[in-house]
Amino acid sequence: MSDQSNPISQESAVKTAKPWFKKKRFVIPAIVLVLIIGANVNKGKSDSNTAAPSSSSTQIDNSSNSSEPTAPSETLEPEPAPSEDVETSGQANAVQTAQDYLNSQAFSKSGLIKQLVFEQYSKADATYAANAVGADWNEQAALSAASYLESQAFSKSGLIDQLVFEGFSKSQAAYGAEQALGAGGSGGSETSNGESLAQSNARQAAESYLNSQAFSRQGLIDQLVYEKYSKSDAAYGVDATNTNWKNQAYKAAQEYLNSQSFSRGELIDQLVYEGFSQSQATYGVNKVGL
Q: Distance between CA 255 and CA 79 in Å, rounded?
């Protein structure tokens, strides 16, 4: 009874428990399958691109990573710019030449520069050398003055003028002359025979003139005064020569006749004009035979 009373439920139970091989299969359309496969392929490519870097970047990374670490490059200190105080070879040579000159004779600063320029140094190098030798130009003036006095006689004023001509300043020349002749010019230091240096120089200058041409006493004094000896030193120098003025008148008469013609009276007048006395002039003209 019970079995017939529930036929539907049993049938339902039988339908529910179908064997696996009788289950319905669902067919996926081909186009959908293609899209799914394509999507998976693209995803794989994307993943491979993301996971694996490009060969070029890999090579760059590998090359940078595989290279051995290099030692840090040494930082070179910049060479210092040449100092303005460094001597050039031209300046050094000019200094050496200037020192050589000063060791052999006295120079003024401007005279030494001119000498170096004459030696083909540039004006700039010559000036640098004259400044660099550290010379005492006052002392150089004194040495130069002494050197002049060894070769010829000078008055103090004449010696100062000569030193200024050589390029010394007026004060340097005055210092040099004072050192050589004495501060007084006509006084100062004395020579071994009791003469002042100025008197001794005046005498030597007078003797030098008389060895070159004939002079009257007055004419020779005037010449020494022209050379800037004082009147007293000039007179002393002329008288100290102990000259025979009549013989000087004779020599002067001969010198005039060697250069031009004179009558007796004209020649006597010329000798008187030159400072000879009338008697001295007459003696000279008589001796030449006029």
A: 79
Mean pLDDT over each residue of the chain, to the nearest integer = 81
Residue 107 burial (CB < 10 Å; 0-12/13-18/19+)? buried
| DSSP calls for 203-262 | HHHHHHHHHHS---HHHHHHHHHHTT--HHHHHHHHHTT---HHHHHHHHHHHHHHHS--
Q: Where are the alpha helices (DSSP H) in the chain?
A: 2-5, 7-16, 30-51, 55-66, 89-104, 109-118, 123-132, 137-151, 156-165, 170-181, 197-212, 217-226, 231-239, 245-259, 264-273, 278-288
Residues in the chain: 290
Q: Are 176 and 141 in contact (CB under 8 A)?
A: yes
- Dump pLDDT digits (tens) for 59-97: 444 444 555 556 566 666 666 665 566 899 999 999 999
Residue 8 in 3-state DSSP? helix
User: What pTM was estimated for this model as a whole?
Assistant: 0.56
**Which of the 8 DSSP states describes residue 196?**
B
In whole angstroms, give the CA distance from residue 23 to residue 33.
22
3-state secondary structure of 190: strand
What is the spatial distance between Cα 274 and Cα 220, in angstroms, rounded to a whole number? 10
> Which residues have C-beta within 8 Å of that of residue 200, sequence separation ≥ 6?
153, 191, 193
Per the rule left: phi > 0, alpha: psi between -120 and 50, beta: everything else, 82 is: beta
**Alpha-carbon span 216 to 284, nearest angstrom:** 11
What does the pLDDT average to over 183-201?
69
What confidence tens digit (pLDDT) does each residue in 215-250 have? 999 999 999 999 989 999 999 999 999 999 999 999
